[in-house]
Amino acid sequence: MKNFLLGSLLGAAAGVFLANTKNQNTGNTFGKDFAEGIKETGQDFDDINREREKNSAKT
């Protein structure tokens, strides 16, 4: 019973999250937004690594 309630709560939370990611004009954009976020995060890591390499070369 405990696992069933936990699963129900998690499922409801996921449903609310996914429902809020819909855009009225374009439909469900969750996948596109997620992929864009991953791409931006990778670019941020690249920027951080470049700055770290610059700083280590100066010292």
Structural description of this entry:
With 59 residues, the chain is mainly alpha-helical. The chain contains two helices and two strands; from the N terminus they run αββα. Strands 1-2 form a two-stranded antiparallel ribbon. Strand 1 and strand 2 form a beta hairpin. It is elongated, with a radius of gyration of 20 Å. The mean pLDDT is 80.
Task: Summarize it.
By secondary structure, this protein is mainly α.
Question: How are the secondary structure elements laid out?
Answer:
Layout lengths: L1 H18 L2 E2 L3 E2 L1 H29 L1
Helix content: over 70%
How many β strands by DSSP? 2
Mean pLDDT: 80
In spatial order, strands of the major sheet run: 1-2
Q: Strand-and-helix sequence, N→C?
A: HEEH
Structural class: mainly alpha
Kindly provide the radius of gyration, computed on alpha-carbon positions and rounded to a whole number of angstroms. 20 Å
| Helical stretch tally | 2
What is the overall silhouette? elongated
The major β-sheet equals:
2 strands, antiparallel
- pLDDT < 50 runs, ≥5 residues: none
How much strand content do the residues show? Answer: 5-15%
Termini gap = 61 Å
What distinguishing features does this structure have?
single chain; elongated; mainly alpha
